Fold this sequence. Notes:
Blueprint: E1 3-9, E2 12-17, E3 20-22, E4 28-30, E5 34-39, E6 43-51, H1 53-68, H2 75-81, H3 94-118, E7 125-133, E8 139-143, E9 149-151, E10 158-162, H4 168-174, H5 181-198, E11 206-212, E12 218-224, H6 229-248, H7 253-263
Antiparallel strand pairs: 1-2, 1-10, 2-11, 3-4, 5-6, 6-7, 7-8, 8-9, 11-12
Helix pairs in contact: 1-3, 4-5, 5-6
Amino acid sequence: MTYCVAMLLDTGLVFLSDSRTNAGVDQISTFRKATVFQKPGDRVLVLQSSGNLAITQTVISILKEEIDTGGKVGAAAAATAGGTRPNLMTAPNLFEAARCVGDALRELHRRDAGALKEFGVDFNASLTLGGQIKGEVPRLFSIYSAGNFIEATTDTSYFQIGESKYGKPIIDRVLRRTSSLNEAVKCALVSMDSTIRSNLSVGLPLDLVIVKRDRFNVARHISIDADNEYFRGIRGRWSEALREAFVQLPDPDWLSAVSRELTD
């Protein structure tokens, strides 16, 4: 299992993902879940992945191969695509880039889904793709196993994939499209900390990618491990703040009433 969160803001995007992969309690490994594609001055794209590691790694390999070969595809696809199709470096906009990822998923599904099913393995993959291509605003997409996808809006400014439930409450309470990149980074780290504390299948190191609007490159790409001073400070201060806030909450009146009834 993994946890990835991608946030779309007025000033850019923030991506945070863990790197833990496990196939049982005694088979825990580290694999990066964030992949950056960029052409400085023209585009920057960040792809996060969750699900079956073999499937998501193969999808990324297909996308990279299409870039290396200039969009050439296999014989079956070439018959319907004229021999070439846009790739992540040539797609005219983020929507078409998301279609490239969806096409890669469907191509892999056609090839491997039947064989996986025979072995009792589900075709399971979820991805987020976000960034900015010159000529349009930053955009963010969530892409499903079937290759279909949805786009973030002003009402839904973030996507989560993987083990999302533990980190969702803080994002819902704090994040706004008008939030600064620094605020979004803090929010993402607290969300990740909540997930790590509640689920052993999510763990360090973390990949943090920050993209500033209209810069068309990665502003910061940071690997965060257990020795990262800022993340240690965030974890400690957030836990302390939660405990203090809990203590300051008033006790419910009905408990006092029940206590008086029992003593009368």
